[in-house]
Design goal:
Radius of gyration: 24 Å
Shape: globular
Number of strands: 23
Strand content: 25-35%
Largest sheet: 8 strands, parallel, barrel
Bound molecules: (2R,3S,4R,5S)-2-(hydroxymethyl)piperidine-3,4,5-triol
Helix content: 25-40%
Distance between the termini: 59 Å
Number of helices: 14
Strand order of the largest sheet: 4-5-6-9-10-11-12-13
């Protein structure tokens, strides 16, 4: 029997991912780039390490080079095997389509594409030197990518009847690295012509219309148009939810130091207009200010999904902020198979090349803390879903400030983060207002006090605090915290209480 096809449903400001006809929140992890290219490797080195983490979804690449080794001959062994493994492990999959572009370059295209630079032409720098990335203006390459992507999607439609695969990412961190725009002959000619009529609000050539921003917007337009052709072909075959992910705009801030043309926050409007079959734009968050990035990527009605987050122990705290404050569809640290081992999964030079701080990949004990957060959140996903999109769910995580104020309908919570304790997660948590006066409070490494609403003449008072956990959606109480223990204090392992607050 085939299950319902996963879909996104929008109700007001809330978007839900429906899996088997019910809302599904992703507690995920993304594997490293090469792990899923070998099924025995997955069995030996990935599944055993992630089993205890409490993931409900694994994010894995499927590469064009392995899918279509010869033109028109497709080999589905890897996606089929990954689906069988995921079924055995009881988790869902998000597939990453590593096609024409992965982190600004084109290393995942099949050998027969690499060998034919005439048909599948590369971008060039301003001196005419070829860059290692196929141009989004190369319509032959875009067509071939779209054909392969559609072949994968129609195979999934026919074979993945239990709907293990719940979403697909189209390409990976698109954009051009090392130049501000493509200077290939085709691009050079197009750049001097008038801006196409479907580009929002522009007349004249790219530089007349946009000045300094011309090169970046030119690339954005062409990547988004190419992506639209690819994702539309895929959706026609099988309409799974689809998204693109971004290497964020960051220091040193010039286009080409980060991939230019990708779905950076500042160009979300162009991506939304030019690639309407892409359901949302996702940030890969390796930068320390997690909250600021989430805020940018929830603008313009964009539902938040974080396919890549720092694998260090910040993830154990950031996940509360993502689900609580930004009502995210899901959260997923990168290099998930490395969070249970102490070895840094990437060396400093490689990370520097990707402009990622070394601390982001310090996985020492991070799996231990992530599994605590995931198991706590995993037991209350239905409750979170019930309050998503309302003002009665709020999250927080420490991004430098000593604390924050969380406003609920009748009272406020004053959150205080302790100074960072080495080798434990930073502060983070979430609060749900079950009724005005009754709250679920959970998270790690923070304290909270209750204060009256600003227009109240009464003093807020903590009446009771009960430890506990959710089991099958029901709160199962543990200790009543009173006397020395009365208060909202959360240590290094994720914990949960239900508290009652009064006013006198
Ligand atoms: C972001 C990319 O999207 C990932 O595939 C990976 O390369 C990480 N950076 C860094 O390891």
């Amino acid at each position: 029997m085939s299950m319902k096809i996963p879909e996104l449903v929008r109700e007001g400001s809330r978007t839900s991912l429906m899996v088997d006809g019910r809302p599904f929140l992703i507690l995920g992890g993304e594997v490293r780039n090469s792990s899923a290219s070998d099924l025995p490797f997955m069995d030996e080195h990935v599944w055993p390490r992630i089993r205890g983490l409490g993931l409900n979804t694994l994010i894995v690449p499927v590469s064009w080079e392995l899918l279509e080794p010869e033109p028109g001959r497709f080999d589905f062994t890897l996606p089929d095997g990954l689906i069988a493994q995921a079924e055995r492990e009881g988790v869902r999959l998000v597939l990453l389509w590593f096609g024409l572009w992965k982190n600004g370059i084109s290393t995942y295209v099949p050998g027969w594409v690499k060998a034919d630079c005439e048909q599948y032409f590369l971008m060039q720098d301003r001196y005419g030197k070829p860059l290692p990335a196929i141009s989004p203006m190369c319509s032959k390459a875009v067509e071939r990518d779209a054909m392969a992507f559609a072949a994968l999607l129609s195979h999934l439609r026919e074979t993945d009847l239990s709907r293990r695969v719940i979403m697909v990412q189209v390409e990976n961190e698109m954009g051009l690295l090392g130049e501000c725009r493509d200077f290939s002959p085709a691009a050079g000619k197009a750049y001097k012509e008038s801006v196409p009529a479907d580009m929002p609000g522009a007349t004249g050539t790219w530089s007349e219309a946009f000045g300094d921003e011309g090169p970046a917007l030119f690339m954005t337009y062409h990547y988004a148009k190419a992506t639209e052709l690819i994702s539309r072909a895929g959706k026609k075959a099988y309409p799974l939810p689809m998204y693109v992910n971004a290497w964020l705009e960051q220091w040193p801030w010039f286009p080409g130091s980060y991939p230019t043309g990708g779905p950076i926050a500042r160009h979300m409007d162009i991506w939304q207009a030019m690639a309407p079959s892409i359901d949302f734009l996702s940030p890969d968050i390796y930068l320390p200010d997690f909250t600021a990035v989430c805020r940018e990527y929830t603008a313009r009605g964009n539902p938040l999904f974080i396919p890549e987050a720092r694998p260090c122990m910040d993830s154990a705290s950031n996940v509360f902020e993502a689900l609580g404050s930004f009502h995210a569809l899901g959260f997923s640290p990168f290099a998930i198979e490395n969070v249970t081992s102490d070895c840094p999964p990437m060396d400093a030079a490689d990370l520097a090349g990707l402009n990622i701080m070394e601390e982001a990949f310090n996985t020492h004990r991070s799996g231990e803390f992530l599994s605590k957060s995931y198991s706590l959140l995993g037991s209350m996903l239905e409750l979170i879903q019930e309050y998503r999109g309302t003002g009665r769910l709020a999250g927080f995580t420490c991004c430098g400030e000593p604390g924050e104020l969380i406003k609920m309908s009748k009272i406020n919570f004053c959150i205080q983060y302790p100074p960072r304790i080495p080798n434990t997660p930073k502060g983070g948590g979430l609060i749900i207002e079950l009724d005005p006066g009754r709250y679920v409070v959970c998270g790690v490494n923070f304290r909270a006090t209750v204060i009256s609403a600003f227009d109240s003449d009464k003093e807020a008072e903590l009446l009771s605090v009960t430890e506990g956990q959710f089991v099958n959606g029901r709160f199962v109480p543990g200790r009543r915290l009173n006397g020395d223990e009365l208060g909202l204090r959360f240590g290094e392992e994720a914990a949960l209480v239900v508290c009652e607050v009064g006013a006198r």
